[in-house]
Amino acid sequence: MKRVLLAAALALTATTTATTGTTAATAISPAPEESPAPEETTSMEETAPPEETSPAEETSPTPTTSPVGPGCAALEDSLSGLADQPAATALSKVPDLSMLAQAVKQAGLEDKLNSTQDITIFAPNNAAFEAIPKDVRDKVMADKDALAKVLSYHVAEGKLSPADMEGAPLKSLQGGELTVKGTGDDLTVNNAKVVCGDLPTTNATVYIIDKVLMPQ
After folding, report:
1. Is residue 61 part of a domain?
2. Quick check: is 146 in a domain?
3. How many C-beta atoms surround the C-beta of residue 63 within 10 A?
4. Burial zone of 180 (CB within 10 Å; 0-12 exposed, 13-18 middle, 19+ buried)
5. I want to staple 122 with a disulfide (CB 3.0 to 4.6 A). Which of 94, 154, 178, 208 is the partner?
6. Please, what sign has the CA dihedral across residues 212, 197, 98, 156?
7. Residue 168: count of CB within 10 angstroms of its CB
8. What confidence tens digit (pLDDT) does each residue in 102-147 have?
9. Residue 101, domain member (yes or no)
10. Which residue range is the domain that position 174 belongs to?
11. Residue 16 and residue 19: Cα distance in Å, rounded?
12. What is the 8-class DSSP label of residue 186?
């Protein structure tokens, strides 16, 4: 009987020891380390929108000069389109210059006036030709050389504005000189008045005048 009790006591002691060891082991076992939380990745900074580029400044159109002279208003309708034509062709488009256009053609100067660059033409209107006695006019119109000489006297070197003509006399293609006086709507060339001027063509500037100029 004593042996049975001793065996039971030993068994109980062993069980208690084992349980205590397991508990102690569990108590001293380190807790598993928590995995570090992944670092938050900062979202890519928003790209600043490109700076707006200001649109290129529009080129201001080259200002066109207004014709000068008291007769421009009456001629306005017939002067449109001159800027796109060479000089002799432009003259033929203006009804009030029909006699001059005929004289230019008769003198054989059409090609010269169309092709010569940078000239100023003082263009007598029809009234200027009609003011010349018919017999004198017919005589000059029949003489090609004399006619070319008279018409060349109406052409000066350079595309001249009214301001350009102030001061020194102008040299004509005929060789003589022309004198311009006055300003604005009150311009004269020698003894002729400017009816309407500062009219551009592709190669010339035209001034319509009220008299035919005679070489000096």
Report:
1. no
2. yes
3. 6
4. buried
5. 154
6. positive
7. 9
8. 999 999 999 999 999 999 999 999 999 999 999 999 999 999 999 9
9. yes
10. 72-209
11. 5
12. E
Instruction: Kindly report, residue by residue over 137-193, the tens digit of the pLDDT.
Output: 999 999 999 999 999 999 999 999 999 998 789 999 999 999 999 988 999 999 999
Both structure tokens of 199: 């009219």
**CA dist 105 to 10, 14, 37, 163, Å?**
150, 144, 101, 31
Token match 């069980």: residue?
15
Task: Tell me, yes or no, whether 216 lies in a domain.
Answer: no
CATH code: domain of residue 150 = 2.30.180.10
The residue count for the chain: 216
Token representation of residue 182: 């006055």
- CA dist list (Å): 83 to 87, 90, 160, 202, 206: 9, 8, 15, 6, 10
Report pLDDT for 10.
47
Report the number of distinct structural domains present in the chain. 1
Tokens representing residue 121 in the block: 């033409």
